[in-house]
Amino acid sequence: MSQETQDIETATTAMTSEAPPDSRTRRYDRQLRLWAATGQAALESAHLLVLSSTATSTSILKNLVLPGVGTFTVLDDAIVTPADAGNNFFLEGPDSIGKPRAQEAVRLLGELNEGVQGHADVKSVEQLLTAGKGELFKYTLVIAHNLPRSQLERLSQLLWEDEDAPSLVVVRSAGFLAEFFIQQHEHTIIESHSETAPSLRIDKPFPALLQYTQSLDLDALDPTDHGHVPYVILLVSAMERWKKEHNGLVPQSYPEKKAFKELVSSMKRKLDEENFEEAEAQAYRSWTETKVPSEVAELFSDPKLQNLNASSPPFFHLLAALKAFTAHPPYTLPLTSTLPDMKASTDAYIGLQKLYKDQAELEKGTFKSYISPEVQIGDDIIDSFVKNAHALKVIRGSSWNSIDKDATALANAVTASPKQLAIHLALSAASSLASKTPIPLQGEILVLTIEALTQEAQSLLPPETELPEEFEDTAGEIARSPTADLPNTAALLGGLVAQEVIKMITKQYIPISGVCTVDLIETWTGIL
Amino acid sequence: MATLVNGSATADWPGRYFHIDQILDKPGPRTDPGFAAGAEAPFLRDQAKILVIGAGGLGCEILANLALTGFKHIHVIDMDTIDISNLNRQFLFRSKDVGKSKAIVAADFIMQRVPGVEVTPYFGKIQDKGDDYYMQFNLVICGLDSVEARRWINATLVNLVDPENPESLKPLIDGGTEGFKGQARVILPTITSCYECSLDMLNKQTAFPICTIANTPRLPEHCIEWASVLEWPRVHGDKKMDTDDPEHISWLYKTAASRAKEFNIEGVTWSLTQGVVKNIIPAIASTNAIIAAACCNEAFKIATSSAAYLNNYFMLIGTDGIYSYTFEHEKRADCPVCGGESLDFPISMEVTVEELIDMLIEKQDIQIKKPSLSTPTRQIYLQAPPQLEQATRPNLEKKVSELVPGGGEVTVTASTLPFSLSLNIIYN
Questions:
Q1: CB contact under 8 A, A492 and B280
Q2: Shortest Cα distance from B294 to chain A (angstroms)?
Q3: Could you list the active site residues of B?
Q4: Same domain, A38 and A172
């Protein structure tokens, strides 16, 4: 059974189990199977601020209003132009021309979902920046599309200075090219929905599992029962025999591992016993030592653990408890209570499942005893933390323009990710040039030459660093369409950005780290 | 500066295509020399006729994107009606539209929102239409959730190709999503890899063996399958199970729950029951937006030559960061639809016809449900009509080697497929 199916099971168990779902649950059914009621609740309590109501901005919002984000505010002082009315689905063609763009967009986006609150704020970005932090900090997250560089610098700084400030998603696009970046301080994830299954600890059988295996006389079973002993038991049993004959050691070399598999195979009574076939296929689990996964072990040296206090987020208190748990035998994470499906009779499987559940419950109790008594953490969070302990994540982000100030990173990127870097530099150069040039009249295109873009991009790089070879073509595309907010590019960015915002808000799945660049000529995305 | 193109629909207002015309008025550094700067718009806006198959999660997005990029003659086919569970992503529909035709409501919405675009809906199946119908389009975009429908349209468009008539080659752009994952691809029938060439890339559907369901249930899913596959027909006889009928789901849920209780299995819920029997695939607006945009962007590039189009497969996984992979999927020489070569099929001399049929059903790159088999000279086994099925049934127990010589050809057909598969039987 795949991890995804398990997730669906968990998700659906969280819904009201007995009766047909209500109409709200039915509406959201297809997404609740991904992020469950907990993710949905997080989404519904979020308040987003979106700066501008361009085609890209409304495309992003559409994909957040549909799944039911709580509240959104569009801040935009623009009046709808004929060009806006042509590329934005959330304007009503010529009827919207001349009206405040934020109001038109909010009205039409609002029609998508009655459960969502939308607000239009016709202030300018300048006014918002002047109003300062108090105004900004009421939002969960801020999204900015094609903001002039000078304003973006001030905005990102305001949101970076404070640890508790909302995250900022910076989106830039021109023609077929685009990039976006999430400025985030610290993002902790319990439910990362990892594809990796937690260890069943076959190599370190817990006492009840070992006892059960030892009490089972395989030779005394009738043929049907013999073909229905779960592979977990078979492997534990075979390993007990092996260790007796090999000084208590598990198979070390390839020939030994092969010999172990032959031992498992020799225990078959008939050629086609599927449970034994599964045991052979899963044999590696019995000699692979269950340890704390290295990514999780790394989290144990997180600076937040050194200075833990009553006001630290629950995640770090739980992480501290986990660290303490793993410092004791058997030096593993708490046992999982989820047993994958395997060839077995109902009774044998349910019996084994009960052994795992009981042991998992026991270990969870031990884990809880390590949680600092000065904090109160709900049981459902503890359950989820233990269940997902093998795939916990902590993302420590950086400020929006940090890459542009990191000479080493830029120099490395020239060779490691030249195509991605070319897009980032070309869009940055265009944004800088646009800040320096007077705003073109309505209907006129800003003129950016390849030469000017190249010069500007070169100035963003540390001295002695050459632009990647790909830059010229990339700059040529920007020069072709410096201010084009193409409907398809807008729609694609709308999907990508909304998806990352959902991951940020629900704290489920793993958002990007770095700059995501998009080329819709060759049709690829890449992280810088 | 955008200009009003002569002869285009009157609804165009000055500046309407300000954004798109930046692309159409100038070539980029990598644009094909065949691109006529400033002269591609009339084809896009006056002549191009595009068919959208599916007006669901992808279809709604596709229609909106095409309309905004300037396609004016759009047709859309969908046989489904709107359900409340569509509203979290199919953004052209509202609560009041539940029960109505997706194709009709979507077409009306687009025409009302984007002036001057003509969207012609067809509320029905793609199989209702013949070659003449498909011949009228310049491009076809598919946003479907059914493998069977995709195979049908793919085979139909491959068969439509007449080497003497370049107009008969209709680029097929296909998109698909599942949760946070999706793919978009461009198929040039007979030239590039086709949908059939890549069937082995599909995830195998979880199927539970009947003996597990009947005798050794372990998971809640096993109990639900027992209720729907074994108990429903036993209790209700010929009455058809309707997975859209909440009363039927409730019955299945209760039946599955009582079996689960009997076996001490936890986790049967109403929602899981519905998910298993309807084979529900999670679906969200954002993934659909990404994939639909990728598809429409290819349509735009093909229709205007403004940039190179995708060669030929874009795959996206959004669960852990954003991972995408763009590659050229290779054409298969033995593809039953576009390959021309027959498929070598090695079997033992002892294999019976029935076993051969099971092997075909199991094979991931063939994916056939109820195959009928024949050789150029005789019928081996036919699934229908009933008289022929009865007449050929005795062959099921015979060995294939009694009926087909080594190196002999077996033609495989199925009612769900618009093509036949030719096997070259090799005994080993």
A1: no
A2: 7
A3: 211
A4: yes
Summarised one tens digit per residue, pLDDT across range B357-366 is 988 888 877 7
Lay out the sheet containing B323-327: strands in order across.
B118-123, B73-78, B49-53, B139-143, B172-178, B181-187, B313-317, B323-327
- pLDDT tens for A258-290 read 999 999 999 999 988 999 999 999 999 999 999
For residues A103 and A137, membership in a common domain is answered with yes
Per-residue pLDDT tens over the stretch A411-432: 899 999 999 999 999 999 999 9
Q: Supply the pTM of this predicted model.
A: 0.93
Same domain, B219 and B197: no
Closest-CA residue of chain B to A478: B28
Clarify whether residues B178 and B317 are in a common domain. Answer: yes
Partner B, chain A 73-92, Cβ-Cβ below 8 Å: 81-83, 85-89, 92
- Residue closest to B319 by CA, chosen among A34, A491, A180: A34
Nearest to A62 by CA among A101, A109, A10: A109
Contact B216 A344 (CB under 8 A): yes
Q: Which residue is closest to B184 within chain A, CA to CA?
A: A523
Segment A180-201 mean pLDDT: 95
Q: Determine the structural domain holding residue B167 and report its residue range.
A: 18-203+283-327
Rounded Cα gap, residues B223 and B217, in angstroms: 6
Query: Which of A169, A189, A420, A523 should we substitute to test contact with B (largest number of B Cβ atoms within 10 Å)?
Result: A523
User: Is position B5 within any domain?
Assistant: no
* Cβ-based contacts of B279 with chain A (< 8 Å): none
B263 Cα to chain A: minimum distance (Å): 7
Residue corresponding to tokens 């249930």: B217
Q: Output the six-digit token pair for B386.
A: 């009933």
Look up residue A53 and give its DSSP letter.
-
Are B270 and B360 in a shared domain?
A: no
ipTM: 0.94
